[in-house]
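Minimal example, chain plus magnesium ion.
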Amino acid sequence: MRIGIGYDIHPLKRGCKFLLGGVEIPYKKGFFGHSDGDVLFHAVVDALLGAAGLGDIGEHFSDKDSRWEGVSSSVFAEKTLTILKKNKFKILNVDAVVIAEEPKLSSHKNAIRRSVAKVLGLKEADVSVKAKTNERLGPIGRGKAVAVMAVAAIQKVGKK
Ligand code: MG
């Protein structure tokens, strides 16, 4: 078994969508980013690539590459799954912590979990999404940004 860690942070801006794991959450602000700014998928992709020892999100889906402009981050997750399969890895589980002062995410956690599980071809039980505030500390605590930490466990399949 191999594990990987991922982290991402995105600034919040008015007029942008607030997307986590492909689920749009109603809020006055959203993520400013090159793609759709889905900070959860970005952290999860980095955790998966890290577990496989296959680089990071910037190497595979560069923000300087116009192909990825405005693209749904679920595409990054799908393509990462393909990369893992090509390298004979299967995902065991994914766990993530969303650090956001606002909006309250408790009523959305299960939808996010289902969405991430679907994109990665996992059972809901193998995906965990937790939410925390930053206790009003720093830029996250002032509602200027949202960060996500993620870990993933993967396993080599087939012959050694
Ligand atoms: Mg990002």
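Residues 2-156 form a domain with the 60s Ribosomal Protein L30; Chain: A; fold (CATH 3.30.1330.50). The longest strand covers residues 2-14.
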